[in-house]
From TrEMBL:
The active site is at C321. This is tRNA (cytosine(34)-C(5))-methyltransferase. It is found in: Nucleus; Secreted, Extracellular exosome. Belongs to the class I-like SAM-binding methyltransferase superfamily. RsmB/NOP family. The lineage of its organism: Eukaryota, Metazoa, Chordata, Craniata, Vertebrata. InterPro entries: MeTrfase_RsmB-F_NOP2_cat, MeTrfase_RsmB-F_NOP2_dom, Pre-PUA_NSUN2, PUA_NSUN2, RCMT, RCMT_NCL1, SAM-dependent_MTases_sf. Its EC number is 2.1.1.203. Keywords: Methyltransferase, Nucleus, RNA-binding, S-adenosyl-L-methionine, Transferase, tRNA processing, tRNA-binding. It catalyses: cytidine(50) in tRNA + S-adenosyl-L-methionine = 5-methylcytidine(50) in tRNA + S-adenosyl-L-homocysteine + H(+); cytidine(48) in tRNA + S-adenosyl-L-methionine = 5-methylcytidine(48) in tRNA + S-adenosyl-L-homocysteine + H(+); a cytidine in mRNA + S-adenosyl-L-methionine = a 5-methylcytidine in mRNA + S-adenosyl-L-homocysteine + H(+); cytidine(34) in tRNA precursor + S-adenosyl-L-methionine = 5-methylcytidine(34) in tRNA precursor + S-adenosyl-L-homocysteine + H(+). One of its GO terms (cellular component) is nucleus. The keyword Ion transport does not apply.
Length: 755
């Protein structure tokens, strides 16, 4: 088995963070394992205790607390999506409704602690409680709270994520103009944090930056897509590559091909995961040092590849959910040593006030799975050289070791703040790697002078010659740059080109520009001249286009210039969907709720301003007649032609009791009624924000029962006669339900067509 294929297998297998995200059933057997009749796993491992006591990773006198914490279930944590304008409304709803209901509550004899904010997470947007996921799922007293969490998670308003998993994105210090690479992204909780940071200003529909989220496992990439889709961003692309050899991409800059270097890189590598013992119980019986020894080489290759693709002045965060220095400080020390000063550890001790952490260690030993210790490479017998490598030991030179400042690494211990175990190191790139030529500096808001460095004759670590496919590429700005670019591209492709997804996307963009689809939509919705029509794409080259998607200008640049390098799993946000009988209307495409917040700033027609009472009616009734809505809403709708409309709610600052965040909904103006096309979980979200409690649903009548409507709901309205509905489209929700691109839960299939 070759090194690359072995590394790919290790990446797929050693991923203990699978259970960190909030999707129900997303983890391994975990707490539910023995509920189905499995014998309970004994939380003891003598070799584990012997190893870490010998390495002294826990402060003196705290070993008992450390082990006690590892044997306790991991507390549930949640994070409120920070970039959405209604984050404050969700926080208000949590604090004043759901958290208050937990006061003085006991479950199975255990007093439920009211959730508390994580002291180190900004703006009280992350909370933790002593409730385990098992208790949340099984306890009748917590059913409402659990339903709230599940529904809001599906809507993308809340992420159920382990506390320590939130740290790496925060330390990346992302700005909206940054180009970001997430090298080992699945299952996606950290990726969603990065997307939120790009959209810090909700008034900018297309930030200059983007996130390219990669994972080696094709199946896990689709889990990553599901997570990212909840945030409805046009600035995310999911790709499927081995992180240790992820291709170097090109972009077009003023007509020249230049190599893409990233301003921020998240390198959350596959690891042995002994910091996850509180949620992955299997680690107790399976733990051995062999896991770390096998993963060290892969982790170092991934980190090296990340450092190669980082822009000068850029920041890379290396993290693991392991406490083993072989996977942590050893990787960082080896990377720093072979960078020859190009990289340095950043001092981030004051960037997350309130977070308790231990400094990185500077001395450690290597132990085999049978308990044999080695203090340095010279003592390792030749028979062990395939298992133990020189990069696993700390540097011998005391001055070189001191200059690395390994104490700037962060070690998170479980007993300090009731979390999992974690390791984080923040690296800043000062110059290009020694085996590379020149590269662009970090792109800031102000123009910076690009400088070049000379090619070093030294190759990568261990004296091996540099592989051309892994060389960092220069910035092509001088004479002969085009020739250099083509030469570098030929070296990297090396005659092994593949027909990637990007090639198809390029054809889609090209074909879309010459048809009149966009022109019809532009006229029907009175799109602004600034509408970026060139950023639209489809996923089919033949026949009618069923959906139109939109990406940011920067991601479009990446797509068009890397047609044979990338295996793209997903990109683009759905903005329009074709109606089944769309030719009967002035525009065959209706608006899609998934992309409405991106598209809305460009729409100047077919906008109906609605009141909060109108929103309640539209979200709880399937096809409310005009007479049920306010006179102001009716006067706006009566002169509009049938077809897709935008329903906009603007908060009234003079009425503090009303919902204080704007809402934009997709709707359909029929002959006698208006309906909304909003996924069920999103409907429930808006209703909760307006103070309504959802009690149930009458599917036949298309009615959602709330605490306001339960007492007053009478017989359903008479159906509009069939002749009145003749010629109107079938339910687009049913059409979407059969589409493979839909990730949010749509309304039940079979709802009546709009009237």
């Amino acid at each position: 088995m070759g090194r690359r294929s072995r590394g790919r297998r290790l990446q797929q297998q050693q991923r203990p963070e699978d259970a960190e995200d909030g999707a129900e059933g997303g983890g391994k057997r975990g707490e539910a394992g023995w509920e189905g009749g499995y014998p309970e796993i004994v939380k003891e491992n003598k070799l584990f205790e012997h190893y870490y006591q010998e390495l002294k990773i826990v402060p003196e006198g705290e070993w008992g607390q450390f082990m006690d914490a590892l044997r306790e279930p991991l507390p549930a944590t949640l994070r409120i999506t920070g970039y959405k304008s209604h984050a404050k409304e969700i926080l208000h709803c949590l604090k004043n409704k759901y958290f208050k209901e937990l006061e003085d509550l006991e479950v199975d004899g255990q007093k439920v602690e009211v959730p508390q904010p994580l002291s180190w997470y900004p703006e009280e947007l992350a909370w933790h409680t002593n409730l385990s996921r098992k208790i949340l799922r099984k306890s009748p007293q917590l059913e409402k709270f659990h339903q709230f969490l599940v529904s809001e998670t599906e809507s993308g308003n809340i992420s159920r994520q382990e506390a320590v998993s939130m740290i790496p994105p925060l330390l990346l210090n992302v700005r909206p103009h940054h180009k970001i690479l997430d090298m080992c992204a699945a299952p996606g909780s950290k990726t969603t944090q990065l997307i939120e940071m790009l959209h810090a200003d909700m008034n900018v529909p297309f930030p200059e930056g983007f996130v390219i989220a990669n994972d080696v496992d094709n199946k896990r990439c689709y889990l990553l897509v599901h997570q990212a889709k909840r945030l409805s961003s046009p600035c995310i692309m999911v790709v499927n590559h081995d992180a240790s050899s992820i291709p170097r991409l090109q972009i077009d800059v003023d007509g020249r091909k230049e190599i893409l270097f990233y301003d921020r890189i998240l390198c959350d590598v596959p690891c042995s995961g002994d910091g996850t013992m509180r949620k992955n119980i299997d680690v107790w019986k399976k733990w051995t040092t062999l896991n770390s020894l096998q993963l060290h080489g892969l982790q170092l290759r991934i980190a090296t590849r990340g450092a190669e693709q980082l822009a000068e002045g850029g920041r890379m965060v290396y993290s693991t959910c392991s406490l083993n220095p072989i996977e942590d400080e050893a990787v960082i020390a080896s990377l720093l040593e072979k960078s020859e000063g190009a990289l340095e550890l950043a001092d981030v001790s004051d960037e997350l006030p309130g977070l308790k952490w231990m400094p990185g260690i500077t001395q450690w030993k290597v132990m085999t799975k049978d308990g044999q210790w080695f203090t340095d490479w010279d003592t390792v017998p030749h028979s062990r050289h395939t298992q133990i490598r020189p990069t696993m030991f700390p540097p011998k030179d005391p001055e070189k070791l001191q200059a690395m400042h390994l104490e700037r690494c962060l070690r998170i211990l479980p007993h300090h703040q009731n979390t999992g175990g974690f390791f984080v190191a923040v690296l800043v790139k000062k110059s290009s790697m020694p085996w590379n030529k020149r590269q662009p500096k970090l792109q800031g808001k102000s123009a910076e002078t690009r400088e070049s460095t000379q090619l070093s004759p030294a190759g990568p670590a261990e004296g091996k010659p540099a592989d051309p496919s892994k060389l960092e590429s220069p910035s092509f700005t001088g004479t002969g740059d085009t020739e250099i670019a083509h030469a570098a591209e030929d070296l990297e492709n090396n005659g092994n080109k593949k027909d990637g997804v990007c090639g198809t996307v390029y054809q889609m963009l090209k074909s879309l520009c010459v048809n009149n689809t966009v022109s019809v939509c532009r006229k029907f919705y009175a799109l602004a001249p600034s509408f970026p029509r060139m950023n639209l794409l489809t996923r089919t080259t033949e026949g009618k286009k069923r959906q139109l998607y939109m990406v940011s200008k920067e991601l479009r640049n990446v797509l068009l210039n890397n047609s044979e390098k990338m295996k793209v799993i997903n990109t683009g946000i759905k903005v329009w969907c074709r109606n089944n009988s769309g030719e009967e209307f002035d525009c065959a495409f209706r608006l899609a709720q998934e992309g409405i917040y991106t598209l809305y700033p460009f729409i100047n027609s077919r906008i109906i301003t609605v009141s909060m009472e109108d929103v309640k009616i539209l979200l709880t009734q399937e096809n409310p007649f005009f007479r049920k809505l306010s006179s102001e809403t009716y006067s706006q709708a009566k002169d509009l032609a049938k077809g897709s409309v935008v329903l906009k709610y603007e908060p009234d600052s003079a009425n503090p009791d009303a919902l204080q965040c704007p809402i934009v909904l997709c709707g359909w103006r029929g002959k006698a009624s208006i309906r909304t096309f909003v996924p069920k979980n999103e409907r429930l979200h808006y209703l909760r924000m307006m103070g309504l409690e959802v009690l149930g649903e009458k599917k036949k009548e298309g009615v959602i029962l709330t605490n306001e409507s339960a007492a007053s709901t009478g017989q359903p309205e008479n159906e509009v006669p069939e002749e009145q509905r003749a010629g109107e489209p079938n339910s687009p929700d049913a059409e979407e339900a059969n589409s493979p691109d839909v990730t949010a839960a749509c309304d039940p299939a079979g709802v009546p067509p709009p009237r």
